[in-house]
Every structure is written in structure tokens, then in C-alpha cells.
Design a protein that fits this description.
Elements: H1 17-25, H2 48-56, H3 71-84, H4 87-103, E1 124-125, H5 130-143, H6 155-173, E2 176-177, E3 180-181, E4 187-188
Antiparallel strand pairs: 1-4, 2-3
Helix pairs in contact: 3-4, 4-6, 5-6
């Protein structure tokens, strides 16, 4: 009789330092915060204490789409997945896309923060390209473009529906002045759609 040896096919996931830091900052609801109101600098190394703090803050409800928060991370993680094939990055991006789908309000728009509905955070936000950045993500998902071909195919019909609602919201929020369609404001009320 001969001997047979089992060959294990253990693959170590390729890690990207920026993507790894994005995973630490991602909230349990799938979105990303903007600590102190500034974009996160993912090029900065984190200490063990900072990593522990971020892990302890996973449950915070401070995710936002302000200044490309959440959309920047989704775009980066999808493209980094394509380069590394690290499934953790794809899953984090998909969680981010699901967060955006959940954050869309009944009018079809996106508030600056979700689920935080205090003050102006709840209103449909056009300033800083906030809502349009989300709409681009939905377009890439629904068309499987810009590295989004790797994303879970079950997200495609949801992204298409979100785009239809989003476009309808954009059309409904265009301000009418003296009977003429004019422009859009930085934010619109999520219920009345007024500036």
C-alpha cells in the first residue's frame, strides 16, 4: 500500500493597509463616519489603542454621506478587492451598499446622515455632491461597471429601484420660482421637498 498526503490549500488573503483601516472605521450598519467633521485620512497608521477604540465604536450611529464619506470607502474597497481578491473588502463594500439602500428615504433622496435624523441631518442633501455620489454608486452597481461587476448580483435590482426613486426625487425637488423650474438648493425637506 502507498501513502497519501493531504495537501492543504490554505490561502492567505492579500491585505491592503488603506482598506484594512477602512474596515476598522466601518460601522455595524455598513456606513462610515466623518469624525470631527473631516474626511478620514486612511494613509495614517493606527496605534493599538486607536484600533481598540475604533472596534469599540462599531455600534455608533454616526454614518454619513457628507464629503464623500461612505461612497469613497465603497469605491475604494471595490477596486481594492479587484486588485487583491480579498473577500473581506468586497463584503465591506456590499455592506456599505446595503447601508445606502437602507438610508434612502421615502421621497427617494438621501439625508446627510443616517440613521441620525436630528436637525438638518435628515434632509435630502445635494451640497458637496452627497446625493449624487450615492447615485453614482447605484448606477455602477446596476450596470456592473467600474469594478462593481464583482458585487452581489442580488443588489442590482435594488440599486436600479433606488436610482428610479432617486431620479424622481431630483425632479420633484427642482425649485419652481414664478412658475418656472429653476435650480436645486443645498438641502430639501425630506417630507415637503421644499428647500
Amino acid at each position: 500500500g502507498g501513502c497519501s498526503y493531504g495537501i492543504s490549500n490554505i490561502q492567505v488573503a492579500v491585505q491592503d493597509s488603506v482598506a484594512e483601516r477602512m474596515l476598522l472605521y466601518q460601522r455595524n450598519n455598513g456606513g462610515w463616519p466623518q469624525p470631527g467633521g473631516d474626511a478620514i485620512n486612511y494613509n495614517l497608521s493606527l496605534t493599538a489603542a486607536q484600533k481598540a477604540t475604533l472596534l469599540s465604536e462599531k455600534g455608533k450611529l454616526d454614518a454619513t454621506i457628507d464629503d464623500k464619506a461612505t461612497t469613497r470607502e465603497i469605491n475604494t474597497l471595490v477596486s481594492t478587492y479587484k486588485k487583491t481578491q480579498n473577500v473581506a473588502y468586497l463584503k465591506a463594500a456590499e455592506n456599505g451598499i446595503n447601508y445606502l439602500l437602507t438610508a434612502q428615504n421615502a421621497a427617494g433622496g438621501w439625508g446627510q446622515f443616517f440613521p441620525d435624523t436630528s436637525g438638518y441631518h435628515k434632509h435630502i442633501t445635494y451640497n458637496d455632491q452627497a446625493m449624487m455620489d450615492v447615485m453614482w454608486i447605484m448606477k455602477y452597481v446596476s450596470e456592473s461597471k467600474n469594478d462593481f461587476d464583482a458585487v452581489d448580483k442580488n443588489l442590482i435590482p435594488k440599486a436600479k429601484a433606488a436610482m428610479v426613486k432617486g431620479i424622481s426625487c431630483i425632479l420633484k425637488t427642482q425649485y419652481v420660482q414664478k412658475g418656472k423650474l429653476t435650480a436645486w438648493c443645498a438641502q430639501h425637506d425630506r417630507k415637503t421637498l421644499l428647500p
